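Box 4.2: Ligand-aware structure prediction
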Amino acid sequence: MQDYEYLLSSLEKVKGIGSKTIQLFFKKKIKTIFDLLWHLPISKIETSKTTDIKNLQIGKDQSIKIIPIKYNFPRIRNLPNRVNCLSSNEKIDCVFFNSYEGYIKKILPINKEVIVYGKIGFYKEKYQITNPKIVSESEDGNIKDLKNYSLTEGLTITKYNKIIEEVLKNIPNLKEWHSKNLIEKFDNVSWKQSIEKIHNFDYEKLKNSKYLRRLIFDEILANFLISSQIRLKIKKIKKKKKIFNKNIKFKYLKKLKFELTNDQKNAIADIENDLNSKQRMFRLIQGDVGSGKTIVSLIAALSSIKSGYQVALMVPTEILAKQHYNFSSNFFSSDIKIDLLSSKTDYLNKKKILKNLEDNKINLIIGTHSLFQKKIKFKKLGLIIIDEQHKFGVNQRKELSDKGGNDCDVLVMSATPIPRTMMMTIYGDMDVTLIKEKPKNRKEIKTYSKLDSKIEEVISFAKKEILNGGQVFWVCPLIEKSKKLDQQSAVEKNIFLQKYFNKRVGLIHGSMKKEDKNNVLNDFLNKKIDVLVSTTVIEVGIDFPKANVIVIENANKYGLSQLHQLRGRVGRGDRKSFCILIFKSHLSENAKKRINILKNSNDGFEISEHDMKLRGYGDILGFKQSGIKKFKLADPILNKDLFDLAEKEIKKIEKNSSKLGDYYKLLKLYDRVSIINDII
Ligand code: ADP
Ligand code: MG
């Protein structure tokens, strides 16, 4: 057996674990010995120092000797099960939420002294311990201090400690996977030493210790390594170079009323290189809302078409598809055949489009997800462009790149800036080009905060802007009024605002039918209404050039990045634009900080860094849905230096593939190899 295979074997291998215990762990997704080791202790239980009932401290975690006297199982919903106990002849209760009676009886037998551990409370003139952990039946009086783990429901903490001890005893010495240079940065501590230390930890001391840092680094590296392997594999696929004249684009660009920004030009250059190379393109263009990604993608389409290929442009919504269709129909001359395919396309038309795609009579097809149905066949698909697809995870991206065959390049565009440290984590499988620069004609969006009692002022302001030809978005957190949540609802706001704006107010929200939504959005686009009340569903990517005011109710309900995204719905034309954040009563310090960040910066990348610092990385926009495994130990904020180090190391490994062999073990342990095999 390979040494690491012990770690990957199932828990049956551990002495003292029966099938019941295995089930318990299984529920917590702990299947292998390695998984178990990953579950770190949260604190130390000093059982040798039980506390006398007179010295209990409310709110603290303490251990105490008790004798159960009587069970109280009320069998009424929401009422906890209680066990009345005595300690030095004084009353104390053990309280259980969500625990079976049988389990309670087993761990707290009447009249038998036990030591329990947990948070001390005080209720109706009595001490109580909620969901206590049973340390041990104190028979021999000889008790060791224990480590406290979070998942001991159904298992005594003593038993849990025994299991961990048994596992730790058998940890193999693994051959070091890091290079000498690198491991020196962690004082040469091995994986085994680190794991052992962490499970026997001296809590506070270990937080910044080399042991923990080494484990964190391993986790980050395993994560990056898999992405980088996927990227390299995609690059190995040879495709036919696309041959085109780079000057043709200027004929089209001349038609625009504006000059491209330098970042747009750079992005185009990156793409041209990719198209013109033998390696397949798998590139992400990341740019803030309004940074002008559409035009970049259309130039990419042009180059591919001029080299004899077809292009598919996929967007999340029908309106956006229509908007891209209109824009590209104007932008390209009639020698480029463009068509639009959506769920609205009628049967006959659809049939014709499918035939034309197969006969290479359409050069550019624009549509929603419907573009990727099996029955759609291209004669010669050379480029897939995906716009505004934040929810695509690694697997879906890979699937897409396979769709078009080997000669098909893939270009993904996203308007959700993410912090730099997260780039590799989320998009490590792609080449990335950033568009940071905003078009020069952009007027800054002024951001204000207002108390909700001043709503009349906001309304008069909006009226004035509408008189000057503007339009207003009005965003509420809820669809309908809620009894529980004191927040504004779009439905009510719509009714409320009608009288102020001559009934030229529309409403859209997530539970409306697609068709109704589209009608309202079209009314807003065509200026049949002046105010659009909505939840945050306002479709991404659509250009509303006349809209110049966005009012956001209960603004403290949103994260910074989300507020910035919402704000980006306005300010796309050359009109001066405003974002008004509405708050209830007085602002907390945190809220003030957030408003100041928004007022002072219009840079989505910078804002995403602040957002991550304020809310933690798990919550940053789009990340949750991206399907990426959450880190167990690593934290992109606290461990930024390790993320940077891992990125550098990955570059070295990419250059020298013989190093990969050593890392295979690491990947195997972190369950990443199966991902590689699945994906590639
Ligand atoms: P996004 O990056 O959010 O997709 P778009 O491509 O929709 O942005 O561009 C937003 C608006 O800016 C469009 O009306 C587009 O025509 C315009 N635009 C794009 N590039 C420039 C530029 N370099 N200068 C001025 N306006 C531009
Ligand atoms: Mg866009």
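In the box above, the bound molecule is magnesium ion. The two ends are 26 Å apart (CA to CA).
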